[in-house]
Amino acid sequence: MWMHIDSSKYDEARIGIAVSAVPHGGFQYKGSFRPHGSESRDMTVFLDDDGQAFLLYSSENNMVLHVARLNSSFTGVEPSYGRILINQQREAPTVFKNAGLYFILSSGCTGWWPNAAEVHVSESIFGPWHSIGNPVKSSNVADRRTTFGSQGTFVLPLDPWQGRFLFMADRWNESHLGHSRYVWLPLQVTLPPESHGLLENSGSSEKMKWISVALKWSSEWFPVHESHAVVHDEL
């Protein structure tokens, strides 16, 4: 288990690690560190199709995302790392993959207040990354500006062959963080028929515009089977 370790002053900026033989614990805390000596704030880990795992975290005063390969035991990082989304001030990165393409859905940096999400896509987790804009599809300006009043925390594959994912987000309550809520919404990825090599060459915006990542509000929906209804009217 990898986690963000910080103080009330938000000046620790460290990664914590705990291990367990089974997912439900108990976990043994192994301590915390700054990967490559760098600040690490909002972070995520991503397991690729080939079994390699990666750490992505906001660093350099939240101006840059760092990406590093985990070691074979998943308890540390390899010596080298990449700097991506430079000077874009993104945090809360969530990583997912579809049809061989990597996607990062992240937020801006506005403290506990929600803001507009942005999606980047790449053929390599180390980049180059290309923005395809705000995934929120709504006629309500506030929805688009605040990602339905939430900040992404994870994107779970439901049926990736059909481009179906579950967007999982926090709806923060700054005054009482323990009373914060969750927002779960369907996320749909649509690619053109021939997606391999889509991002080759610079200036590929004309090709990229055909990639769609759509996040829409629904008070009740069925992720895969009708017996698995998700209702969140009270969020």
UniProtKB/TrEMBL annotation:
Alphabetical keyword list: Glycosidase, Hydrolase
SUPFAM superfamilies linked: Arabinanase/levansucrase/invertase
The keyword Hydrolase appears for this protein: yes
InterPro entries: Glyco_hydro_43, Glyco_hydro_beta-prop_sf
GO biological process: carbohydrate metabolic process
GO molecular function, one term: hydrolase activity, hydrolyzing O-glycosyl compounds
Superkingdom classification of source: Eukaryota
PANTHER family: GLYCOSYL HYDROLASE 43 FAMILY MEMBER, GLYCOSYL HYDROLASE FAMILY PROTEIN 43
Family from the record: Belongs to the glycosyl hydrolase 43 family.
Name the UniProt record assigns to this protein: Arabinanase levansucrase invertase
